[in-house]
Structures are given as C-alpha cells and as structure tokens.
Design goal:
alpha+beta
Length: 145
C-alpha cells in the first residue's frame, strides 16, 4: 500500500486495512539517498553501506530527523524505515511525484503472506483504496515491499 508522504487521510485508512498497531514501522521510499537523506540520520560509514546496497530490495531503519512527521515514526524508538527500490514502475512513480512516498506491505489481517495479485487486491479492497497498479507477472516477482 502506498500513499503520498503528506496524505494524513490515506495514512489513517492504511492502518485499519492492515490492522496495524502503533509500533508498526512505515517505510519511506525514494529515488535515491539524496532524496531521502533529510528524513534520517546516518554516519559516513552507514552512508557508504547504503550506497553499496541501493537501489535494491533492502529496507533500512535509522533514527528519524525532525522532517519526519511523528505519525510515521516508530513511537518508542523515533526511527523510520526507508528503501530505494530498483523497480522501474516504482521509480517512475517517484519521478512523477518528485518526493518520497510511504509504503506498507499489503498483508491483510489473518493472512500470512502479502497480496500480490492485482485482481485479488481489487476484489478484497474494493472501495478502500483509490488505485491498484498491475505491473504484470515479471514485475510482481521483482516488487518486494
């Protein structure tokens, strides 16, 4: 599930769909470290590691800066997850928006695995989401949020 970083209403809708508690780590997704660096604190060593591992299928959790709204931070740790994906569709979406987005893997309550089929997502979520993007079978295997 994805929403614009400033969209408080979308954030309010994601929690109940997933039955999330207050300790859930939301993840910021951006095109590169330069776009995301204002949202988290990192050392030079961490920067080198992040540069070597991105873009890719990794989510990193670091201390959040004051730029991160409290509703997005882990309540106790004041951290934020972030990812720089190598998925073309996500990168194109980020390019259009020109700012990071918030993601949360679509795992419904009482489900063990994330939903990956767009038709199943549409059927289960009907009026709870605005858009379902079908990236095809090749993209589904690459898209690991």
């Amino acid at each position: 599930m994805v929403c614009h970083i400033g969209d408080k209403e979308a954030m309010r809708r994601i929690g109940p769909i997933r039955a999330l508690n207050k300790d859930h780590h939301y993840t910021l997704v951006g095109r590169g470290i330069s776009q995301l660096s204002q949202y988290f604190k990192m050392t030079n060593e961490q920067f080198r590691l992040l540069s070597a591992c991105t873009p890719g299928a990794y989510t990193f959790i670091l201390p959040a800066t004051r730029e991160v709204p409290r509703r997005l931070q882990h309540q106790k740790r004041r951290t934020i997850g972030f990812r720089i994906p190598d998925n073309r569709i996500v990168q194109d979406l980020l390019g259009l928006l020109a700012e990071p987005i918030i993601i949360s893997t679509l795992i419904l309550p009482n489900s063990e695995f994330p939903m990956g089929d767009p038709d199943e997502s549409r059927a289960n979520l009907k009026y709870q989401v605005q858009v379902v993007i079908d990236g095809g079978t090749e993209v589904k295997s690459q898209l690991r949020f």
